[in-house]
UniProtKB/TrEMBL annotation:
Family statement: Belongs to the UPF0045 family.
Region (Disordered): 125-158
Domain Thiamine-binding protein residues, every copy: 61-152
GO CC entries: cytosol
Superkingdom of this protein's organism: Eukaryota
Entry protein name: YkoF-like protein
Biased composition (Basic and acidic residues): 136-158
SUPFAM superfamilies assigned: MTH1187/YkoF-like
Source organism: Pseudoneurospora amorphoporcata
Entry-linked PANTHER family: UPF0045 PROTEIN ECM15
């Protein structure tokens, strides 16, 4: 006799988007029958044309680029080269003690971060690690400076 495995939920979902819609099913572990559902969630997902989804119009990205294996504990030279690149890009950017915030169109921001990797590799780093946090909004335009000013305004009332 085969051992039956049970999900912590009474059902599991077959979400393969590569199968025709009629093959996407809700599997019931409580019976031997398949329950077929035409759930709006599946229909919405199946209608997306993923390769043609647009990137957000604008974003801000805070990133920290770290050259690895340079033999030097200082990264000032690499940071200076990245700052020169950012200045040449024309994108709004703000350097701080633990990284840089860049603002602009999504594709341009991501491109310049990739170019920053290339610049640091050209400086001799064999490996580059980057941590990033990205933010986007669709309801209004808001810069990183606007966000800081809002909080500073609240604090000035204290």
């Amino acid at each position: 006799m085969r051992a039956r495995t049970y999900s912590p939920l009474p059902w599991t979902l077959n979400t393969s988007l590569f199968r025709p819609l009629h093959h996407r099913t809700l599997l019931s572990h409580s019976s031997r029958h398949l329950l077929r559902l035409q759930h709006p969630f599946y229909l919405k997902m199946s209608l997306h044309d993923y390769p043609n989804i647009q990137t957000p119009a604008s974003c801000y990205v805070d990133f920290c680029l770290v050259p690895v294996g340079t033999g030097n504990v200082s990264v000032a030279n690499e940071v200076a080269e990245v700052q020169r690149l950012l200045k040449a890009s024309g994108l709004k950017h703000t350097m701080h003690s633990a990284g840089t915030t860049v603002e602009g169109p999504w594709d341009e921001v991501m491109k310049v971060i990739g170019q920053a990797h290339a610049v640091v590799h050209q400086e001799g780093a064999k490996r580059v690690q980057t941590s990033m946090r990205a933010g986007t909004r669709t309801d209004k335009k808001q810069t990183a400076e606007d966000k800081v000013k809002k909080v500073e305004g609240m604090l000035s009332k204290d």
